[in-house]
Amino acid sequence: MAEIKCQELTLKELTSGLYVFPGPTNIGVAAQKVSPELTEIYFIDAGEDAAFAQKLYQACQNCFGKICVKAIVCTHAHADHIGGAAWFKENTGCKIWATQAEKSCAETPQIQATSFYGAFPLPELDTPYFHAPQCFVDQVIEDGQKIKCGDFEFEFIPLPGHSYDMIGALAAGPDGKKVFYAGDGIFGRTMLNRFWTPFVVDVKSFKESLLRIAKIKADFFVPSHGDVYDEVDELSELNLISTICNERLIEEILVQPKTHEELLKAFADKSDMTLRLSQFMLIGSSIRSYLTYLYKEGRVRWFFEKNKMYWQTVGGTADKA
């Protein structure tokens, strides 16, 4: 893969006209020359904030010369993916594409932190990481929709689980090769080594999305967090193993009944985590998602005792007593 250093960013060419800017959140790029002087750009996600969006724009100018940003595909409306979209829309006039549920979040960004926290969030959570600038969406993307853009064609694959209505973008270039920009539908090995418990809102859908990704035919796979892969079967399996390990750890802890906060502490202790406010919120929210999934599967139950809500594994010690 060819690499081009563009100021502070490095652009990697995956195949003809399809690129990625690697970073904490990888940014996909589809670029096509429409004249000797002008290159049209489509971004997959826009980065975490306006400052990064400006760096991204300047880097593309350095790489391609005069550019016209046509559209930004928002895989989902978490702030590290959509935080730069408002700057692009205001300064370049580009269109913003997103699914219906993610459109709602992009246009009402308070939803993100409220969803994570489970209530009106603490002021310490009113940060760019959890609260992107409001951004209005121009085109609602439907599951499986295909859009032809000059030499490129995008096919949008539903990948709910990490977020409610997330999509991946399967981009076909002029040479016929395909790059799948997977959003947070799958996480790279490095990411999983650091964070074995990624955020999820719907465990069942996340697992189904991983199986869907494993069946996609592409030459390159680009998770939003992690390296680029030329095959994805083993990575999909590793993500599934992570999810199943988290399920089993929760069931193991809940052999003895515990409140949600007691479960969160035990889960963090056994996972060698040190919880700060953001981790407490994100891991705690994910554990609630796991509890909902396990409850629907008939693997855990809940009950109240002395005005406390307890969870326990079905067949655990309290059940046997």
Number of strand segments? 15
Number of domains: 2
N- and C-termini, Cα separation: 61 Å
- Strand residue content: 25-35%
Q: How does the helix and strand content classify structurally?
A: alpha/beta
Low-confidence stretches: none
Bulk shape: elongated
Helix content: 25-40%
Q: Name the CATH homologous superfamily of the largest domain.
A: Ribonuclease Z/Hydroxyacylglutathione hydrolase-like
Q: Kindly report the CATH topology of the largest domain.
A: Metallo-beta-lactamase, Chain A
Would you list the SSEs in sequence order as H and E?
Answer: EEEEEHEHHEHHEEEEEHHEHHHEEH
Query: What Rg do the Cα atoms give?
Result: 21 Å
Strand order of the largest sheet: 1-2-3-4-5-6-7-8
Write up what this structure looks like.
The chain has 321 residues and is of the alpha/beta class. The chain has two domains: 2-243, Ribonuclease Z/Hydroxyacylglutathione hydrolase-like (Metallo-beta-lactamase, Chain A); 254-320, Arc Repressor Mutant, subunit A. It has eleven helices and 15 strands. The strands form three sheets. An eight-stranded mixed beta sheet has the order 1-2-3-4-5-6-7-8. Strands 9-10-11-12-13 form a five-stranded mixed beta sheet, with no helix packed on it. Strands 14-15 form a two-stranded antiparallel sheet. Strand 5 (38-44), helix 1 (50-64) and strand 6 (66-73) form a beta-alpha-beta unit. Helix 1 (50-64) packs across helix 3. The longest helix has 21 residues, at 233-253.
Write the layout of secondary structure elements.
Elements: E1 2-6, E2 9-15, E3 18-21, E4 27-35, E5 38-44, H1 50-64, E6 66-73, H2 79-82, H3 85-92, E7 95-98, H4 100-107, H5 110-117, E8 139-140, E9 146-149, E10 152-158, E11 167-172, E12 178-183, H6 189-194, H7 203-214, E13 220-223, H8 233-253, H9 260-270, H10 277-296, E14 300-305, E15 308-313, H11 317-320
Helix pairs in contact: 1-3, 7-8
